[in-house]
Write a sequence for this structure.
């Protein structure tokens, strides 16, 4: 069930049996010479699509994340972290005003993890500083870090999966957009590893944008399997999150 | 050409012949008992899809706008205006750092008009207060206000098109998502008109969410015609915007 | 009745029969070689003076608006739009805390329109996101856009009135400050038209500061007529605004 | 010379021989049962008027200051301190972009002193944190604290002048607006003294709004003398401030 | 009683008989060639240590203040004033949420005075703009400005104590850290006096960092006397502040 | 070498051979019935003390972190995350303006991890959005997560060390403040485990403040060993961080 494709009476009805919502959050940033700039948004959006088929409400994807370190590659976009915090604060407050209590952000980008957790603390701070209890349950799930996905990545690629522009995520985007498959020789075969700082430093250390990865290993069929693993991981985590026992 | 479905070398190549980009911007808010909550994002996104087919770069849709007045209807979301200003500031700065100069926001929501223009003034203020020239060209186009669209609305609906949850926009969403067509008796046939304030006041004045409209007049075929009119309007405006004469 | 020239018991008494207030808002910016820098504040302040004579409460003029595009001309001042939003938020909250509910901003500057409407949405957002009804009624009236003023402008100047440093507003400032009348040859007679961006771009496109106008047509007698037309427009709009029917 | 009553070529000419400007800053707040709400803006504005006659450039008065503690009395207005800081930052940056270097804020309200000095530190912080020298000279002068004014207050009222709604300032407003003179019995004759906190606490401690004062001692003739003393104090301080030796 | 060396049940018990707390606030900034960079934090922290021995609760020292003007000397640190305002707002709100009502900031740095008072007004503004009474009592005490300390400074140094890197404060740091005593010839013997602006201007006017002072006069024994005088001043002021009569 | 106990010429000399600095960062929050409220600040401050003995520059401890979830226990303090981001931004900018390039934050509190990393991204965003290279190297080290500390914790306590108010950290505070040792029966012996949300939820789930821990296992001798392990971990990580190879 997609929020954008629902009417307000649909949501009114949904709230009678659930106060949970899934919000895909990604990034719009370079993913090496062959990876799509939208990779980090496409991946959680695709998996959330499977959740939507199971009567779980899915909000519009937050497509732009914190990716300042990628800006030296054309097409990359970032929000300042404090901007993303404000966006998440407003998104949560909007739906909370109508009775939603459980917000599951399904994330596709490592650079969002700290800012999203920081946004959660910012939101709860208002209640805590007012000595008022909050009924908000906020959780970040990373599709690329679930147990089934990790096992599959290990099985298919071992440590060749790397850290940015990985074969895992490229495979999943090809599952979602089969016509976007691109092949290219990449030199070196495996990209270098290292630490991330600002955009200029990133491009100096990782000249083609990849980190420690071999996206050449991606296939559409692998992508199908990552979709299934990712969906199972996300469903399991979401259902536990919204269950009364966990609440 | 979609930014999300491009690679960074694609964008590097694009920048050699164009420094313009289209950014659809919408809202996620109730559109009456039968209109989709995503209407205001779907409409500009759909028209931008036609622009993308003509080798114009289209960035990810900013799906959440300023819609505080709709919050009393479940599923509606808002950014505070100052949050949207920060988002636009960061989005523009990101792509400007790579050489983009012309930003065309294709808008689907009346409530965004003032905040987006305000964001433009905020962005230019930095240059102006520093006595530095800005090379940024920022424009907001409203798909629903172009000359061809207005003529078509007048021809098909006259003043029955109304102001919110209009037959025009509902038609266009059905063109984009034919399976989402919904029929319902609406009482009164034409919704009341009036002024907008906060969310509680809005729901009191407009009990089913519509303003002055008769979305019952929508058809998928009308939607196809709005798509064509809207695309022609947007292409004309965009091309004038990025032409050197206008620059 | 001027707020600044009242005592607090005066205002306490006023609140027993009215909860409305007029707040003139303008700008401090160049108005061409012969127009006063204070034009956009003087005009609404002058008209509001007429309202004050009719027992309507008039607050101090907000003299500095959003005028970043004028900064390349000495003497021009701007607030960043987000600063103006904060000012309006605080001004409204101050008087609202004492029982005022209807705020009519009488505006003299086009560049304020978007930021002031954005401020209104920012103010209502707090109530809407808290699921609380707001009793605040916020309206922006532009003295230069009322029906009587527009008719008079058309009658006296036709399309020679132009867009910035217009004969209409210059006339009105001469009505208010007769000793400030200035005559000068201006070249070209009618200033060029075009789009507004940042300050450097503005001065490049509009070298003497005017846009599409012929302030040479201004006279003090015209100014008297604009004062009367503007006052009638503003009184009509304000009275409708504060009437229970409209509320 | 008033900025609002000048043209941009006038200011261009002024900048050839001076880069200093006077900015009156006041407050809009209750001044007891008989004092005008605009007292703290009227006083510095009136004295600045004398400076304007001596070819010193005077900008529009910033009429609303930090007066949160007065809000329990109708008609009082406040800016949050952080809002006032933003206003001052933008005002200074605007004129600095055109070559102004010396900003003399002529103040009428004790509650503005800390926020204005804080704004100065905020402005200089940008330069200091960037290891760049600033050419901005920022000074706050309090009309009520100059040597001649203090001597006159002592001579006329001794310690009966008090702290808020003083006979000094009331006298000066009557000099400026003779028709606004109001007489009333006040009980107690001299208002109580004490500490200031929030608005509710203020009204509880100072029921009619005055602090330690006897505005009944005010006369229009005293006001004329305060005007002359205040003008001499301000001129002396301003001239020393803009002189190269002090620079 | 130190907050950091207490447990939460200790504080729960403390709140049964007192709702007051002392918060030392200082700065980390150059203090001339021989003064410690931590001088302005060490001094109030040391005096607060004496208060802690008398069962007054002492919170952790806020060691970094507003010191933008010192940044041209290595090791100096500043918060922007608006940052310090946010820190103080959060610190007060945290303890206020648990029942603390009286906050006594014991300050060691002149540059903090305006920002801390501004923070107080910012905090009270929230209550005042909401027409709600605040139970917060906020006070800034400057250890260097108490009556006993001033008398001692006058007695020991007269006007040679100066304004920055004074013999008084250097003496007190030597009392606290006897092993940190440093002797050096300083040229000129007494540092120059003047006005403070930004960092570059400060270093130009005060080449070794001192202002009008002769820290060569400092001794450890003087420091002991300043400690005793400062403690007596602070205890007296704090006890008056938290007494019901003053409340 | 402590920044606070240095003079500016000391720091000028230090910068000739190193541009690195250690900044301890902690929290002021409840640590169960027997743990000190200052635990999370005391631990990194104590270990940084060992680094200071090895000629590494140590700045003042940032004692207040993000601890909104602890506020329901008296004595706990928090900064809003956005406040902490501003503090870190200013601290880094201050020392960077003087030539420091490597900032090592030695952290004692899990709740700071996301906000500090978010602050790093915020800082780098400014450079990245300006297409300028940043020379800032920013790193967060958690004393409780180093390899030697983890081994020691496992050896001494196994999984009884838990998550909040752990035997490890309590031991270390007793090493630093031997006189603060407190013994108490705690019921249940091992505290419950669970998820963290706001303050009220925290106190409901963890009634005495501990999470999954048995601080009864703490001893002063264990604390000595944690100090040595923590110091070795931190020294190793810091030296790698500032080495040219890593740079």
């Amino acid at each position: 069930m997609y929020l954008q494709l629902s009417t307000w009476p649909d949501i009114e009805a949904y709230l009678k049996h659930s106060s949970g919502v899934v919000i895909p959050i990604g990034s719009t940033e370079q993913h090496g010479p062959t990876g799509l700039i939208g990779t980090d948004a496409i991946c959680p959006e695709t998996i959330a699509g499977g959740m939507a088929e199971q009567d779980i409400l899915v909000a519009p994807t937050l497509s732009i994340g914190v990716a300042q370190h990628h800006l030296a590659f054309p097409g990359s976009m970032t929000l300042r972290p404090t901007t993303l915090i404000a966006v998440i604060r407003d998104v949560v407050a909007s739906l909370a005003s109508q009775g939603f209590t459980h917000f599951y952000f399904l994330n596709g980008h490592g650079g969002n993890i700290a800012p999203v957790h920081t946004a959660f603390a910012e939101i709860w701070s208002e209640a805590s500083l007012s000595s008022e209890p909050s009924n908000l349950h906020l959780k970040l799930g990373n599709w690329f870090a679930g147990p089934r996905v990790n096992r599959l990545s290990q099985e298919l690629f071992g440590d060749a999966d790397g850290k940015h522009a990985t074969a895992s995520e490229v495979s999943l985007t090809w599952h979602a957009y089969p016509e976007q498959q691109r092949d290219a020789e990449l030199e070196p075969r495996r990209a270098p590893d290292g630490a991330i700082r600002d955009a200029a430093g990133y491009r100096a250390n990782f000249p083609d944008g990849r980190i420690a990865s071999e996206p050449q290993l991606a296939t559409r069929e692998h992508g199908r399997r990552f979709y299934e693993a990712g969906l199972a991981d996300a469903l399991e985590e979401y259902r536990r999150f919204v269950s009364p026992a966990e609440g």
Chain E touches chain C through four residues (CB under 8 Å). The CA atoms of residues 50 and 123 of chain E lie 29 Å apart. Chain E has one domain: 3-246. Chain E has a mean pLDDT of 97.
